[in-house]
Amino acid sequence: MNVPQHIAIILDGNGRWAKSKGMPRNYGHAQGAKNVEKICEEAWRMGIKYLTVYAFSTENWSRPQNEVDALMKLLRNYMKTCLKTAAKNDMKIRVIGDIEPLDEDIKSRIRELEEATANNGGLILQLL
C-alpha cells in the first residue's frame, strides 16, 4: 500500500453532528478533540510522517462567546495532556497558525510544547 507522507484534516461539522444527536454543540467539539488523539496514533502506525490539523479558523472568533470559550478550554485541556502523548509517541508538535489572538497562557504552552518536542522523531503534528 502506498501511504502518503502528509495528510491534513479539517475539524468541521462537530457542532452540527452534536445538534443532530440532540446534544449541545460543545459536546460535538469535545468528541472531535478526542478523535484527534486517535487519528494521531493511527497516522503514526500507518507510517504517515506529517499530520496537519486545521482546528480553529479566524472565522471561529465570531461564534458566540460561550462557544469560543468552550473551544479555548478544549485547547487548554489538550495542551495539558499533549506533552505526555508526544513523549509516549515520539511526536513533534508545531503550530503553524497565528497564535497572537490567543490568551497568553495558551501561547506560552504552545511555545513549551514546540520546544519540548523539537527533537522528537515520530509523527509531526502541525496545528493550524
Short description:
This protein is α/β, with parallel strands linked by helices.
The major β-sheet equals:
4 strands, parallel
Structure summary, number of beta strands? 4
Number of domains as seen in the coordinates? 1
Order of helices and strands: EHHEHEHE
| Oligomerization category of the chains in this entry | single chain
Q: What would you report as the Rg, rounded to the nearest angstrom?
A: 15 Å
Strand content: 5-15%
What's the helical proportion of residues? Answer: 40-55%
* Coarse structural class: alpha/beta
Task: Tell me the layout of helices and strands.
Blueprint: E1 6-10, H1 14-20, H2 25-46, E2 50-54, H3 65-89, E3 92-95, H4 104-117, E4 124-127
Helix pairs in contact: 1-2, 2-3, 3-4
